[in-house]
């Protein structure tokens, strides 16, 4: 029988011993510009590392749309997955009758670093300052990936092996659909529980909103009867943007959820992209607005879609131009439902114990104003899942950063949790 106190001390010491190597590993990952749809090179690097350094059984494949497109968790993309690998490293338990199975899961993709010229340094060349590491993906979520990989490495380099099955999953396209995580689960890579190191400040997630992406298109080809010109569709964008902001206010005034009562406007509607025209001297005849609207747990994707369609129709019904040129609304990308967790479950209890043992602080909870891959595990596969990761900031913005000491703490927490959850014994 392994003494838990002695094991904990061994793991902490090993994480400290490996820290500089873990830091360099993280910097190497950041140097891969693994934008959504371009994860391939990073995933090749990780697949090789899991194979050669950790001796895991590695499977690498791309999401097969035909295998997931009928799934309720599927989000329809406008892109292919030719360069979006899924990487899964598996350890088969040496005594699976003991312990429980576990997945550490992270996403390889990052969002655009633009405007790159506004960064204090290149977003793809990490730099340290005042205990922070800056770079695109440093927090979201390559810092967490480093932590989960080196947590397992600490366990095996202390001379232990998990008694039950353990997996490291690194998936693509979390930032746009979550289809990478869904494809991995549909391929049969499941477990009793999962931890996802999203950078939420060493706080365990107990709920998250859903997200729905939309694209509203305006188009006119009919010339004005008297001016013999087309209406400039840019002039009509204001009507749509104002309507969307009013829709957001309406949703937050008429919907609520106790779990999100600490947030002023949990149903966030964001206009993220506007395009129109292609020449300064021409009046544009086509414009698009792309955005995202949140859903509280329990709200349905189909209902939110219909609400948005009805709202835009109502808001534009008295405008003659819109009567002749009704906007079209398309839904692609995120079709994500919100989720809640039971924070009294064995998973939370075990993570709380590991957190308290490593940090010497009481565990805390938080709800997330965003969606994560955790929803797939929870809603469709009945896998208890927690997002718990390092401290960071400026996610999806200029000068993204992660706190280095917090990565070290997360690595220690994950190592202790892994040993206790799966059970370990000497090689």
Automatic annotation (TrEMBL):
<dbReference type="InterPro" id="IPR002933">
    <property type="entry name" value="Peptidase_M20"/>
</dbReference>
<keyword id="KW-0170">Cobalt</keyword>
<comment type="similarity">
    <text>Belongs to the peptidase M20A family.</text>
</comment>
<protein>
    <recommendedName>
        <fullName>Acetylornithine deacetylase</fullName>
    </recommendedName>
</protein>
<dbReference type="InterPro" id="IPR010182">
    <property type="entry name" value="ArgE/DapE"/>
</dbReference>
<dbReference type="InterPro" id="IPR050072">
    <property type="entry name" value="Peptidase_M20A"/>
</dbReference>
<dbReference type="GO" id="GO:0016787">
    <property type="term" value="F:hydrolase activity"/>
</dbReference>
<keyword id="KW-0862">Zinc</keyword>
<dbReference type="Pfam" id="PF01546">
    <property type="entry name" value="Peptidase_M20"/>
</dbReference>
């Amino acid at each position: 029988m392994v003494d838990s106190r002695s094991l904990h001390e061994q793991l902490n010491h090993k994480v400290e011993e490996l820290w500089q190597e873990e830091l360099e590993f993280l910097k190497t990952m950041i140097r891969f510009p693994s934008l959504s749809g371009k994860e391939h090179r990073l995933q090749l690097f990780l697949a090789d590392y899991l194979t050669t350094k950790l001796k895991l059984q590695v499977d690498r494949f791309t999401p097969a749309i035909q295998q997931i497109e009928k799934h309720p968790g599927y989000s329809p993309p406008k892109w292919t997955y030719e360069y979006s690998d899924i990487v899964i490293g598996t350890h088969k338990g040496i005594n699976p009758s003991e312990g429980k199975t576990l997945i550490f899961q992270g996403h390889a993709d990052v969002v655009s670093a633009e405007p790159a010229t506004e960064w204090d340094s290149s977003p793809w060349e990490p730099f340290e300052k005042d205990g922070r590491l800056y770079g695109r993906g440093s927090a979201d979520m390559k810092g967490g990936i480093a932590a989960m990989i080196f947590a397992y490495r600490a366990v095996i380099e202390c001379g232990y092996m998990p008694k039950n099955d353990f997996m490291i999953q690194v998936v693509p396209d979390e930032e746009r659909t979550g289809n990478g995580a869904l494809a991995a689960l549909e391929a049969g890579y499941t477990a009793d529980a999962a931890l996802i190191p999203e950078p939420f400040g060493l706080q365990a997630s107990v709920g998250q909103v859903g997200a729905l992406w939309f694209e509203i298109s305006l188009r006119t080809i009919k010339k004005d009867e008297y001016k013999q010109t087309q209406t400039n569709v840019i002039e009509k964008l204001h009507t749509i943007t104002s309507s969307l902001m009013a829709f957001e206010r309406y949703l937050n005034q008429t919907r609520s959820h106790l779990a999100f009562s600490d947030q002023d406007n949990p149903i966030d509607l964001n206009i993220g992209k506007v395009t129109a025209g292609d020449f300064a001297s021409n009046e544009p005849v086509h414009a698009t607005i792309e955005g995202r609207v949140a859903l509280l747990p329990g709200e349905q994707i189909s209902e939110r879609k219909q609400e948005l369609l009805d709202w835009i129709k109502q808001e534009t019904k008295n405008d003659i131009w819109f009567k002749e040129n009704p906007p079209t609304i398309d839904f692609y990308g995120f079709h994500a439902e919100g989720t809640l967790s039971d924070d009294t479950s064995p998973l939370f209890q075990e993570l709380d114990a590991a957190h308290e043992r490593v940090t010497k602080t009481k565990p805390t909870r938080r709800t997330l104003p965003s969606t994560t891959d955790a929803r797939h595990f929870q809603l469709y596969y009945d896998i208890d899942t927690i997002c718990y990761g390092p401290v960071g900031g400026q996610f999806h913005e200029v000068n993204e950063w992660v706190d280095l000491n917090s990565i070290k703490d997360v690595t220690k927490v994950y190592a202790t949790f892994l040993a206790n959850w799966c059970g370990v014994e000497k090689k």
